[in-house]
Amino acid sequence: MTDTTSQPITPQTKRNIFQQLELDVRLLGMIGAFIILCIGFNLVTDGRFLTPRNIFNLTIQTVSVAIMASGMVFVIVTRHIDLSVGALLATCSAVMAMTQTEFVPHVLGLGLNHPITWVVAVLVGLVTGTLIGAFHGWMVGYLTIPAFIVTLGGFLVWRNVAWYLTDGQTIGPLDSTFMMFGGINGTLGVSLSWILGIVATVLALLTLWNSRRAKLAHEFPVKPLWAEAVMAVIVSGAILGFVGILNAYEIPSRRLARLFEARGEVMPEGLTMGYGLPISVLILIAVAVVMTIVARRTRLGRYIFATGGNPDAAELSGINTRLLTVKIFAIMGFLCALSAVVASARLANHSNDIGTLDELRVIAAAVIGGTALSGGFGTIYGAILGALIMQSLQSGMAMVGVDAPFQNIVVGSVLVAAVFIDIVYRKRVGAK
Amino acid sequence: MTTPKELRAQGATPMVEMNNISISFGGIKAVDDVSVDLHPGEVVGLLGHNGAGKSTLIKVLSGAYKMDSGEIRINGNKVEITNPRDARSHNIETIYQTLALADNLDAASNLFLGREIVTATGLVNDAAMEAECRKIMGRLNPNFRKFNEPVSALSGGQRQSVAIARAVYFNAKILIMDEPTAALGPHETQMVAELIQQLKAQGIAIFLIDHDVHAVMELCDRASVMKNGQLVGTVDIDDVTDDDLLSMIILGKKPGQDTA
């Protein structure tokens, strides 16, 4: 194997602009649909849809489903399904609510709003979610019970475990630090948001630069420099634009005045302050980055996609597909717990119906985002964009004043239509 | 260099011995007390009808199936092969009849599946794997171009060359080829034949499953014929004719035996 004869790398001619930019046409289609949707709602609502305030709300409403959707991508890519995510979220939320309102204050005797309360609650929640997920994965992988059945059972079990744990009561208010994960109660403020935005931009540009260098090092074809520049401008514009919009949503002056009063200070006249990036959005971004790296750059991700493409081939290549199934469902469970933190913190309490119908929203987000139920294909960013599109559709319709039944009718129809368009698209381009 | 035939004559320990292997599925004995062996640099053909148990037998060696009874010895030492990872750790590589490729991944990802090249930080190094893939494909199939497409976009011959590349890249000592030329045209079949000669010269021991008696006569040193899960017999290719092999496959009779 010491022969170094290498394949000549043929420069590809005849490439259109999208190919030169190496952009995923499918992603562009989704972004296009999303932009049309936003502009459409904005016109109908006389400009109320695309205000910093509404974009801020839309973003924090999307986080919980989007976090779970990124995990659902792995589940669906390996030809499984998880119908229990909403119920699992409820159980994790109930466990965390009981931890911070009963266990830490009364059993440990630390009282309400102790500084370590949120840490304990979050850790207990994450461990619970991961263990339940791993248990699902063990039943699917080692006992070979179909995932549909395991998680259909889990759907009933965990929804009612949550009910049993809390006696069906709403548990709240939650720990004040814990509630910072919910969105509006925990934002970074303007300056810190800008700093983070700039750091993120620099990191993104470095990533682009490094991938180009890696390709050049192996003498693979690279994009023309102008295409790299266009990509760099788009990426930086998107990151900084997003931060700018969230910064532009100003804390209402009366609320700001109350904040100052609480600290025993007087608000300076004419002071305005933006909310900036919510912590929950940072969590989502972190999840998206980590999950994308796992999907593309780790062995685990490679095995997940290989197993989805051909389970027998994966097994024959020495991949322990059973253990892999446990890992995938454990990740899903972990992300459900993380979503539970965000969801219950946003509502400021644990309610018995938290996460109801989330399983369907999460699956829909992943599927609209291009995850193929036949396995082997799917992207994290697609699923998150799918979640954003679903949420925009829902809240846009609510703003326009569409009746609740029609909202769900539209969302359901859009799901089916989106998958149909995807099938037609895949046939056109000849992909599977 | 001693030829495999001389090694056998000297009574040298074979590289692979599969002794008294039996495996059954739901009461049907797919492989019934079969013993075969293989010396370095030797090609042993496995012949038989569809369902004779050839693929099942070699899947025991490649770790895809667990045998019910019997033993496997590598260089005289008894080994346990319970999954494909065990087989790979003994430098046993397999080219499956179905190719066992993940259709949604590109050639390099399939070539290195389960044995990825990773960077210092433990992330998969796609650029390095693609470079290695280009090197080996340059030797095996110089016309191969589609490095950045999923293997579902490849032709039968191209897919086959990916599967072959995967088996020979990792310094295999024992190679199992399950109908490697089934999906290939005449030119590519010839390339596989040349590759087998080349690997043989490097001292690699090869089990070749093939339906084509002529190909077996041309490429193999010995042939083991199976029928209904049992071994009809193992013969030296130099001692038999095409017709002898055919009668072993069809009638289950060793040459010299009466055909009743």
From TrEMBL, chain A:
Keywords: Cell inner membrane, Cell membrane, Membrane, Sugar transport, Transmembrane, Transmembrane helix, Transport. GO terms for cellular component: plasma membrane. One of its GO terms (molecular function) is transmembrane transporter activity. Pfam families: BPD_transp_2 (PF02653). InterPro entries: ABC_transp_permease. It is found in: Cell membrane. It comes from Tritonibacter scottomollicae. This is Xylose transport system permease protein XylH. Coiled coil: none annotated. Part of the binding-protein-dependent transport system for D-xylose. Probably responsible for the translocation of the substrate across the membrane. It comes from the Bacteria. It is a multi-pass membrane protein. The chain crosses the membrane at residues 25-44, 56-77, 83-104, 116-139, 145-165, 186-209, 229-249, 270-295, 328-348, 360-384, 404-425.
Automatic annotation (TrEMBL), chain B:
GO terms for molecular function: ATP binding; ATP hydrolysis activity. It is a peripheral membrane protein. Its main location: membrane. CDD domains: ABC_Carb_Monos_I. One of its GO terms (cellular component) is plasma membrane. PROSITE patterns: ABC_TRANSPORTER_2 (PS50893). It is found in: Cell membrane. Pfam families: ABC_tran. This is ATP-binding cassette domain-containing protein. Keywords: ATP-binding, Cell membrane, Membrane, Nucleotide-binding, Repeat, Sugar transport, Translocase, Transport. Residues 16-253 form the ABC transporter domain.
